[in-house]
Design goal:
The protein has 260 residues and is of the alpha/beta class. The protein has a single domain, classed as 2-Layer Sandwich (Nucleotidyltransferase, domain 5), CATH 3.30.420. The chain is built from 11 helices and 5 strands. The protein has a 5-stranded mixed β-sheet, with helices on both faces. A hairpin with a 4-residue loop joins strand 2 and strand 3. Helix 7 crosses helix 9, helix 9 runs antiparallel to helix 10 and helix 10 runs antiparallel to helix 11. The radius of gyration is 19 Å and the shape is globular. The two termini are 30 Å apart.
């Protein structure tokens, strides 16, 4: 079975914000500031993190791993619409029926994907299958928190205890993987305003690579990989990064090699 690791990057959905809060006269940047301010008010100043349904997806990066190959890329191109990005994501699920792997996918990525699919009218029958048309999905489907067809590593490793969760970058770095390298989620909006979609897409790919590396470590501790299998898979990822010959992937490889 193939494994599809995924990660999303988002910005404030200023179009919906303007509609909901009567902000049509404001620029996108001004409307987003109002949205951030409203969120701080809702949380008594503890957070300006905008609620899931008002997050617009600007990138979905994936690692697709199968027995004969492994690849990392970002869906669509710089000009792809949110709807096209979502359609490509679900096309991959329709084609491969993979095991989905994420870090906090249950808490963030998938709920955002659900809301945005609802807004964009994106159909995904295979993803939403729960056993009515395919009996094998009755006991293992993408919707259940405790099924493996979607494995949220943060959730599983924390024993489904929210007080025990940890940031991906810290776990990745602790294990000798690169973690975040200069970019972070709180910088995505500014990068988007500056038109730096390439920077966002490259950052998303580094996150999804970190997630995959934590996943194969998880496969080691649960006995699905032997020590030799784990080392072979690490070498396969390094070879893929080397062959891609893309500056941000070379930087990731060098940071990984330099940490060992």
């Amino acid at each position: 079975m193939s494994v599809l690791v995924f990660d999303i990057e988002t910005v404030p959905d200023v179009e919906s914000g303007k509609r909901l809060y009567n902000l049509s006269s404001l620029s996108d940047k001004e409307a987003a500031e109002v949205m951030f301010t409203r969120r701080r008010q809702e949380t008594d100043g503890n957070s300006d993190f905008i609620r899931h349904h008002l997050q617009k997806i600007v990138a979905i990066s994936v690692v697709l791993s199968s027995a004969d190959k492994i690849n990392v890329w970002t869906l669509g191109d710089n000009d792809s619409s949110e709807k096209e990005i979502l359609e490509r994501f679900f096309e991959g699920i329709d084609k491969f029926t993979p095991t989905l792997v994420s870090w906090n996918g249950s808490g963030f990525d998938l709920p955002v994907i659900h809301y945005r699919s609802l807004l964009q009218g994106v159909s995904a029958p295979r993803y939403w299958e729960t056993g009515n048309d395919d009996q094998s999905f009755r006991w293992n489907n993408y919707q259940s928190r405790f099924h493996e067809r979607h494995t949220d590593l943060m959730d599983v490793i924390a024993g489904y205890q929210y007080r025990s969760v940890a940031p991906l970058t810290e776990i990745a770095s602790m294990l000798g993987f690169p973690g975040k390298m200069g970019m972070s989620g709180d910088k995505v909006w500014d990068a988007y305003l500056d038109g730096e979609i390439d920077v966002i897409r490259n950052y998303c790919e580094s996150d999804v690579l970190n997630t995959y590396l934590v996943y194969i470590r998880y496969q080691l501790i649960r006995g699905h990989f032997t020590a030799d299998t784990y080392e072979t898979e690490c070498k396969r990822v390094k070879e893929m990064l080397k062959n891609e010959k893309k500056p941000h992937l070379t930087e990731f490889l060098n940071a990984w090699s330099g940490s060992v």
